[in-house]
Amino acid sequence: MCLAIPGKVKKISNDHTAEIEIGGIVKKANLDLIPQVAVGDYVLLHAGFAIEVIDQEEALEILRAWEGK
């Protein structure tokens, strides 16, 4: 079983990486698995890779559940 964390794409670089914001923390992630991603999209992150684009509502629902709200 794996754990993927939702985050928002803040910036995309030419080297197929992006800055992803997760709860106020910015992490760098590889975009090779989802090259169609755009700034503002929400993605699932796993082991340093963005693995799937998800909609904002789903991302925020997951984050609220983790926060216990």
Describe this structure in words.
This protein has 69 residues and is of the alpha+beta class. The chain has one domain: SH3 type barrels (Roll), CATH 2.30.30.140. 17% of the residues lie in helices and 45% in strands. It has a 5-stranded antiparallel sheet with strand order 3-2-1-4-5, covered by helices on one side. Strand 4 (42-46) and strand 5 (49-54) form a beta hairpin.
Query: What is Rg?
Result: 11 Å
- Uncertain stretches: none
User: What is the makeup of the main sheet?
Assistant: 5 strands, antiparallel
Number of helices: 1
CATH architecture annotation name: Roll
Cα shape: globular
Q: State the CATH topology.
A: SH3 type barrels
Mean residue pLDDT: 92
Under CATH at level 1, the class stands as Mainly Beta
Biggest sheet, spatial arrangement of strands:
3-2-1-4-5
Order of helices and strands: EEEEEH
